[in-house]
Amino acid sequence: MSKVSTASAKRRKGVAAAVEPAPERGGRAAQKLETRRRIRDAAWALFTELGYDETTTKAVAERAEVATGTVFVHARDKADLLMMVMHDRLAAAVDAAFEGLPRRDPLLPQLLHVFKELFAMYGEQPVVSQAFVKAFPGASGPNGERLNALTFAFLHRIAGLVRDAQARGEVAGDIDPLAAAHNIFALYFAALLSWLSGFVTLGAALDPGLKSALALHYRGLRA
């Protein structure tokens, strides 16, 4: 199994287990988590089979074998369902990326390692991923809020890499790590948008697109 397929397997395992909220005691709480899992899996299956635009919340409810009203207990609308499924996939991809991080490498290869994992996740289902990148900015449902929290946590993990690079004497000490992380994330999202807009393939958005942009930014961070 290649490194990419191994990482993909970790993402799939993570979606099924690691990113689920910790079960609370009591049958009702466990039942609620199970219902959420069924709705999430049904939404993902339909998004990948029919496409996001053609999927309805009624179809998701039927696939999950729940009432339509139950779907709205777990997601505000169809866009929030998309946030639900992508939150779990992104969380698993981020965890897999940092788990396999080459700790002895300089900052630039570390960043490329992390973003390569995310780009690979998006590339597994490009049509669904494109719908997500369009819908995510401004998402305000409960699952959108969870995604915003995940994004902020990701920014702090990137800031941690910058801080580690400062400790190695690789990045200037007067650089604000979190500000640098925000700039890095902006370059990453711009690369995603270049793919979404059809200017480049997803692979080219990463290399040379994001790779070149990060290399230029990295020069400005150097000590």
Name of the CATH first level: Mainly Alpha
pLDDT < 50 runs, ≥5 residues:
1-5
Strand content: under 5%
Spatial shape: elongated
Number of strands: 0
Describe the structure.
By secondary structure, the chain is mainly alpha-helical. It has a single domain, classed as Tetracycline Repressor, domain 2. 77% of the residues lie in helices and 0% in strands. It has 10 helices and no strands. The chain has helices at 3-18, 27-50, 57-64, 68-74, 78-99, 107-124, 126-135, 142-167, 177-196, 202-221. α1 (3-18) crosses α5 (78-99), α2 (27-50) crosses α3 and α9 packs antiparallel against α10. The longest helix is centred in the C-terminal third of the chain and has 26 residues, at 142-167.
Entry keywords:
single chain; 223 residues; mainly alpha; Tetracycline Repressor, domain 2; disordered N terminus
Task: Please render the helix and strand layout as text.
Layout: H1 3-18, H2 27-50, H3 57-64, H4 68-74, H5 78-99, H6 107-124, H7 126-135, H8 142-167, H9 177-196, H10 202-221
Helix pairs in contact: 1-5, 2-3, 2-5, 3-4, 5-6, 5-7, 5-8, 6-10, 8-9, 9-10
Short description:
The longest helix is centred in the C-terminal third of the chain and has 26 residues. Helix content is 77%, strand content 0%.
